[in-house]
Structure formats: C-alpha cells, structure tokens
Task: structure prediction
Amino acid sequence: MLHTYRTPMFAAALAAAFCGLFALPAPSAVAEAPKVERAPVARPAFDGASEDSIDAERLYGALVRVQAVAVPDARTSATLGQEREGTGTVIGRGGVILTIGYLIVEADDVKVTDSRGRTYPARVLAYDHATGLGLIKTSVPFDVPPVPLGNSGKLADREPVLVAGWGGIPDTALAYVASRRPFTGSWEYMLDEAIFTVPATTGWSGAALVDRRGTIVGVGSLVVRDATAQEPQVPGNMFVPIDALKPIIDDMVRTGRRKDAPRPWLGLAADEFQGRLIVSRVSPDGPAEAAGVKVGDVIVGVGREPVRSQAEFYRKVWARGNAGTEIPLRVLQDVDVRDVRVRSIDRVQYFRPATTY
Result:
C-alpha cells in the first residue's frame, strides 16, 4: 500500500498538526505538563542533524514495517509466534534499522517495507538480551535519512511524546510520559530505567517514541497495566530508552552483540505473587529444567540469600558471575525445600541458528 504522507504538502500539514498537539494540556490522569528546560541532544555516531522541531517527512520516511519468520522449531515460537511483525526505525546510513529484539530473535527470514510500499530483504545485524533491543540491516542499498538519536534521560514526567509506527498516521498516537522507573520481566529481564507512557496504544512493537525535537528516545516493547508509578494505576506502554543503546551500538554493529561478558541465564520465568517468586515457565532443554526446577516451584533464595522479588532474584544471580557460572538456588517443591545447582549459559546459545544454504 502506498502512503500519502510522503508528499511535501502533507508533511508540512502534519508538522503543523504536531505543533498543535504538543501545545495541548496533558490529560487529567497525569495532570498538565510543566515547562522543562531541555539540554542539547547528544549527537553520537548514529545521530543525524537535529532540529528543534519534528521533520514529519524525515520521520515517516525512516519508519519501516518489519516482518520476520522464525527458524523451524524455534524455541521462542511458543511465546512469540512463528511470524512476527512490528516497526523499525532507520538510525544509521546504509539501512541500519533499530527495532525491538523479540521481533527478530531466531529469525530465519526478515524483510522490511518502506513508506512507499517497497519491500527489501534484510538480515539480523545484532540482538542484545540485556536491553531487549535489536538491529537489522537491509541486504540491498537503502539510502534513507536516519532519525536522530535523542536523549531519553532528559525526558520529564508528563512530557508529550509521539508513538510512531510503520503504518503512518493511523499508526501514530499522542502520548505523555507517565513515569521513568525500573522494570522487571519474568523472562530474566530487567531495565534499570524504562519509559512508561499513557494512554495505552496499539502497534507498540518496535514503535519509535519521538520527542519534541523529532528524535527517537525509546523503542516500543510492551503494553502494561501500571504505567503510572503511583495510584491510580493507569494502563499504558513501556519503551526501552534510547540511552541504553548508545554505549553498545558500535559493538553491536561491528560484532552483533555488546562486548561485555554475557549474564548467566537459567531458562525459567518467575512471577511475583504475594511476596513469593513462583516459577511459571521452564524453558525446554534449558539449564533450569536440567537441574530439576519445575513449574509451580517457589524460589526461596539464591544460595543462602533470600529473594522475594524479580529484581532481588536477578541481582543476586547476575552478581554470581558471567554466563557459565553455577547458580545455587533454594526452591520449595511441594512441601520440601531443595537446594539445586543450575549451570547457567549465555541465552544466545539456547537459540536455534538461522538456516544456511
């Protein structure tokens, strides 16, 4: 499908509309946005020239539809599906595209479609489990002006932002920053700081979170029930902050991953419930299954150190060493407390390799 937002007249009208939207007061759920003194946006290597306003034509020209098909028997198909679709944002010359990592994990076939409806083959360039971010690159020349990287650390609560997806105007929503705070997921995932926006919007997977300057400040990851940090709890979306990408992007482009040693991965999901950490899923053929951990077990501690939350659990596991370290767990199975030792691995080792011909 061809999109009309590439025409100069439409782009100008859209830019004017954005200015009007940013002038609107915040909704009552998050109160009116205060004035914020903004520091100059950092300009790393993958940052283009930046202006203090949104260049609508540049923004939408850099948003692409990402479609990926996982390898046969992909280990992640049970939770993520065999076919995946979301948004990618061109952030580097030559077709370097930023997206959310779960779209491209174990991907066997990747393609992107630009704003004019043209489809290009692409390949996975990098995946980082610690942040959840991924990079892909077109396999043929794709010379699109990149969206500048912004400064997510300068976002203020109640600041207006745009959630921009590959589908153009129907896939774009005005939102407000509800909070910036740590996030933990049951899949052995934790961000020291994530960006939460309200109201909740669809099409969040890989969507670009765009600030007043037209720079990308976050990548869409999830819809959540508690975007606000305090009562009343309001549904919204969670974004991985762009500042998490900046220290690792050069290594990701060069080698496909960050240079830091990988964290230990156990292959289990644990949910918090009434002060307990209950195992809700065990990855087949993973380290935890091999050690005898089962769904329904209660994780009591790491070694002799008690844990009651995901954050406590992850910090204590990761503090034990790098991937390959043996992790001592105390688990309550039925009515017995057992000590089990899980030989951790690098999570990337668990994935199925892409097909080669």
Q: What stands out?
A: The longest strand covers residues 172-185. Helices lie at 8-22, 56-61, 77-80, 249-255, 287-291, 310-318. The mean pLDDT is 87. The CA atoms of residues 101 and 134 lie 4 Å apart.
